[in-house]
Amino acid sequence: MSGTVRTTMGRMTAHLPPKKKSHLHASDLRAITLLATQATHAVTTLSEGVHQSVLSTLGAPGGDTAAQTRGLTGLVYHSIHGVTKLVGQGLAAALTRLEPWLLRLEGPADETFERAAVVAALNGVMGDRLQASGNPLATPMSLRFQGRVLDVAVMPAATHVSGKLLVVIHGLCMNDLQWNAQHAGEPVNHASQLAQALGYTPIYVRYNSGLHVSENGHTLARQLDDLLLHWPVPVTELSVLAHSMGGLVIRSAVQSAQLHGWLWPRQLKNIVFLGTPHHGAPLERAGNWVDVLLGSTPYSRPFAKLGQLRSSGVTDLRYGFVLDSDWQGHDRFRRTPDSRTPLPLPDGVNCFAVAATTAAKRGLLADRLLGDGLVPLRSALGQHDEVARQLHFAQEYIAYRTHHMQLLSSPVVTQQVLAWFGRVQEYPASHLEIISNVPK
């Protein structure tokens, strides 16, 4: 209510009206202009490629590359690129100068759930391009406490937090707000349940899931180091709850921290992986096949660029890349065998895997192995034909008749995580079967 006193991040702010929520922010005009400029360049390049493909069948020579035209035709396409660049730069510069005025006119505003979801999806698909072009829609990694960005220079009051930290990491094309799910009309948030039942303080991670997993891993490792150094009470335990790609990010972060000699991995006690594609997801590999097929003829080859809009983060899911060496020096759109450097789970940490399958518990073996619609069971459980790549979890749990996204809203998953984190719950044994003999 307006006029009340509220506490935010340990600071008292009196008689401030509640912030309004807005789908659009002042910087969105510049962001859309940059996207439109990129789209125009892409369409022009695509058109020129088709044009040259047709000309080449008639024996006409090409330009500097096989996808470029020459002569007057090439000059036209070159002019379109030049004009688009100049117009885009001019609009972006004008809107940059206009943004402070728009911000004053707009006033303070919080993002809506819908806006956050759209921006997260856009980052997942092309977040690497957004960052490279300086687009305001590119999401910087941030740690969040009670819905606000956590600034290590202004920590919460010691009376509002505990020494048991739970780092919560979302998956591809998602954000931290989407941990608030619903099941049968009732709210479900695994992290909130752990906080209420076991005294954890949830720290949510928001990041650009279109970047390489290892890039996000480096950034997260550094931010966690800063977090523990500045936390207002002694940290007695650090645990992690990660969904999908988030599981790869935390594995990468632990490795990065160990290489830098940072100490926070020593306080890491538990990691729960929810539907993490430790050995990749077949849908990305299927998308890679589209690249190959489109590039097989001169007429369709220019359209392969559409398939290559997949971000670095998406292509990392082909095999489950977690290290720089997995992707550096490689063409990420070229179909190659799995050449990852094997990375075991961190020593001394209780690692738990939750996998899901859309099949019934008594379904055929083939149905059960299909997984949750995005991640196969074997990948989520860390199983691999090569011994060096196998991941060995403390315990594993399979959620049947469950889709990948339903792992966030399943009360049964909540109870399982609570059980793993040390609380005994009374619920039907059929809902708490620890799978120890999962089909290999």
Automatic annotation (TrEMBL):
SUPFAM superfamilies recorded: alpha/beta-Hydrolases
Domain GPI inositol-deacylase PGAP1-like alpha/beta: 162-292
Pfam family, one: PGAP1
InterPro entries recorded: AB_hydrolase_fold, PGAP1-ab_dom-like
Region of interest: Disordered: 1-23
Protein name (record): GPI inositol-deacylase PGAP1-like alpha/beta domain-containing protein
Organism annotation: Rhodoferax lithotrophicus
